[in-house]
Automatic annotation (TrEMBL):
InterPro entries: ArsR-like_HTH, HTH_ArsR_DNA-bd_dom, Metal_resp_trans_reg, WH-like_DNA-bd_sf, WH_DNA-bd_sf. GO terms for molecular function: DNA binding; DNA-binding transcription factor activity. Keywords: DNA-binding, Transcription, Transcription regulation. SUPFAM superfamilies: Winged helix' DNA-binding domain (SSF46785). This is Transcriptional regulator. It comes from the Bacteria. Pfam families: HTH_5 (PF01022). Residues 1-91 form the HTH arsR-type domain. CDD domains: HTH_ARSR.
Length: 102
């Protein structure tokens, strides 16, 4: 079980895959939309989606000619979203407080 968890975190060590899962947290998207949002080529995003699908973290279905991807593991998505949102909050500029009496 620990080895499986370590493998999953290894899979998530690629920033593109983290970005894809973060985007899929808002709902299903096709590969073209994901590629545009990630700033990557469709081929690159398709490659990473294939790895995520093999790991069972995303699923795909057809809508006409489009392949639409959806996240399948809500707990993993929660961890990804929490981690990214925490980092984003830490990056916000802080206003400096003046010392008392200054």
């Amino acid at each position: 079980m620990l080895q499986d968890t370590a493998s999953m975190f290894g899979l998530l060590s690629a920033s593109v895959r983290l970005h894809i899962l973060w985007l899929l947290a808002d709902g299903e998207q096709d590969v073209t939309s994901l590629a545009a949002a990630c700033g990557q080529s469709v081929a690159t995003v398709s490659h990473h989606l294939g790895k995520l699908k093999l790991a069972g973290l995303v699923d795909v279905r057809r809508h006409g000619r489009r392949h639409v991807y959806v996240a399948t593991e809500p707990h993993v998505i929660e961890v990804v979203v929490l981690a990214i949102n925490t980092r984003l909050a830490q990056k916000k500029p802080r206003t400096r407080r003046r010392a008392f009496g200054s």
